[in-house]
Model the fold of this input.
Amino acid sequence: MNCEVAHERIVLAAYGELADDQVHELDRHLITCNECREEREQLLALKTLASVHPVQEPNANLIARSRMRLEEALDALPPKRWYERWGDGILNNFARLQAAPVAAALLLVAGIGAGSLGGYEVAQAKTAHAAAGNRAAQAAVRQAAVTEAPSAAVANVSSIVQQPNSAMVEVRYNEVVPRQIEGTLEDPAIRQLLMMASEDANSAGIRDDSVGLLAAECRAGRGCNAAGIRDALMVALRYDRNVGVREKALRGLEPYVAEDMRVRDAVLESLLNDIDPHIRSEAISILEPVEADMTVRQVLSTVATSDRSPQIRNVSRQVLSRVPEIQ
Amino acid sequence: MAASRAINGSDRAQERLQARAPEMELIREAQKGSRAAFDALVRQYESQVLRLALHLTGSEHDAEDIYQEAFLKAFRYIGNFRFECSFYTWIYRIVTNLCLDQLRRRKTRKEDQAVLVDHSGDEIDLLASVSDVRSFSNPDRELDRKVLGERIQAALTKLTPRERMVFELKHYQGLRLRTIGEMLNTTEETAKNTLFRATKKLRTQLAGLR
Done:
């Protein structure tokens, strides 16, 4: 081994990047080469020196400030339009298909073939009718643009076209069509809408109402085993910014803390991370049936020494002291 | 201090709990638009991002800016994440690029070169009065630790941004050279050569005058 190669391998060895056989070879070279031994000493000294400028853990204030600033920036972003989400979904699906090129190609060919045949027949039957219909629709749009303002709330504008050599402007837009549905909480459609509402970023009131209803169902033991409801409550407990919503979610999950490990984890996370002491205190009382669980005891031990609230630290210590150690 | 212990204690417990929530599920949910899932991903990586940015820039303010830009970019482009690499590598790729931009701006401005003044207002030549780098093997005995740290920072500013980044990721963050290559969109071999250059330059800067 020449010294130039040895110098590079000394660096790699110092950082644990050298293969074992090359380490052995290097060691044999260093036995006989004073210059390379000196090089190694210098490098180790550099490593010692560099450690005088240590990496520091970011403090809690920096993390909290950064997080809050990010949340404000994300809240200020406009929500994606339906066509943007649709486009993202198409691109994601296309990307997944790229991983199976043969199947993707066959699907594409089959799809194009079937679509062309069907489309040809439909188009033949409807051509004259469609042309007349389009002319009428465009005339109606132009007429409407001249004489009427949009009657329902406008969701977004999809295109703006100025007619050449004309003062006319054609605007295509989509409307929000308010709808209403009534039913009991056993109705799957109602439940689905309530779960969507529990994540409504715009209105704490809507989230509060929806989470309250879902939580009441869970506390009454009705239908909380249905897919998604318990998950919706756990998401609300973990991430909702409104303390009232998080409290309702916590109450709704209470009956399941013993049987469902995911619920237990969500409640333990609240105990560790929720900024509201009332929520953390409620979490301790809800964990009572599972006080002997090892993970629960570990979290209570952490809370007993490090929670910001003296009352919560006291309560944690009391809970730990009344449950014997797990054998 | 109490807050740091609280964060450390709760972080360990949080890690155990979050190990049960597969990251891929969170990413898929975030790609569908779930803000809650994205927030969970932020929490998993925010300390590492801040740790890296803080050590590289030496400034809490700059570290916050890098944090903000990195996660906003991640939010904007998470739809493009195709699971071809780990999310850890993907996020770090964004952060290292932002840090590189920051280092390049500083190099251009030249206002962050290590020129310190002592109590009487005279400039301190940090690289003078060093007889032998081996004397630093016992810094507590030889020199004040704070001044020594400043000397290291001064030497680090003499590296090119890429050399600085590779040295930071290898020496201070403990990453594998292969991972560093992926994060910097280059090969492991290039990362190795960059590390060699960086250590050579640092030794030259810190050897001083005999």
In short: Residues 1-7, 111-137 of chain B have pLDDT under 50 and may be disordered.
